[in-house]
Write a structure and sequence with these properties.
The protein contains 11 helices and 15 strands. A hairpin with a 5-residue loop joins strand 10 and strand 11. By secondary structure, it is α/β, with parallel strands linked by helices. It holds the Pfam family Polysacc_deac_1.
Amino acid sequence: MKTVTFILLSVLIGLAVAEEPEAPLAEECNKELCKLPKCRCSSTDIPGELAPRDTPQFITLTFDDGVNIRNIETYREILYQRTNKNNCPASATFFVNHEYTDYQLVNELYNQGFEIALHSISHQTPQSYWTEATYENMMKEFGDQKRQMSHFANIPSDAIQGIRIPFLQMTGNASFQVMAATGLRYDSTWPTTSFTDPGLWPYTLDYASTQDCIVPPCPTASVPGVWVLPMISWRDLNGFPCSMVDACVFVPPHHDEEAWFKFILTNFERHYLGNRAPFGFYIHEWYISAYPGVKRALVRFLDLVNSLNDAFMVSAGEVIDWVENPVPVNEYVKKECKSFVSTSCRRTSCGPLTSTHTEMSYWMQICNICPRVYPWLENPLGE
């Protein structure tokens, strides 16, 4: 009987392990074999061997967390109707988590031309949950969220390309392997403090990364074709690095618009006057709405970007598009603007919905038929 039990356990363990892809250790990058558009070594070199003056300066403005009736007012005020100097709509990226998100407003953001990316279903604490997350955990958080986001916001699944893990907590190989398995294209979780001047350009994980590991565990496996969009740290007024703007410690007084505008420009110019690695303005909306001086400074900065001939406010996905097929700025400005197919939203209010992870009841604003229960891990569509 003990022998039979042991055999059964061995089979079950074998099946569990089989669910996770093998993780071949990544080798040092071979520049002769790793070539665009599908592969790029981690490097501060400008893609296409362009000179800085010929390289478009991309600005990626991103917002984390849920989309709701409060923060949508800020997004409408500062982002809508913006146009870059090449007459293409300016864009931004929203890393959206599930709980308390209004999917009708996500649909609105998508139809305004902004990029919708993933920030997990649960966004749960403690942070150690993410540190120790397995392939199965990350599949439930991000693989399933891709289906969930597409379903409830009624946006095309293939338009959802990026992820950012809560708390910028890396999970080793797991998240990247889930991305490869589910058709997700890039990660924007990984901060760098060592590659800021010059900045680290996006690269793939076909080969071993040279990026510093600030929030371990970082990936060690070869995961071909999956892109890393490094979060190049800012420097606060005392020179300390900060990956998110609202995480900078030594900053100008929040009411001082002029000082904040100069603070933003100082960090921007490190990119613009350097190797023109994408400049990330990574922030949570609450920080902007809480400090009007910061918001006014941001608006001034975005106005400046939109007026420059060689700087472009784009989504994170558009940065990867360019890196895959780099062209000089004089050709980039002549390219057709990125297009997308708008979608409708069958506006439906659902609730109260019971949940399995808490005793709370929830209401949901979605773009289709109400779920049976509140969607959560292991039941992303609430069936």
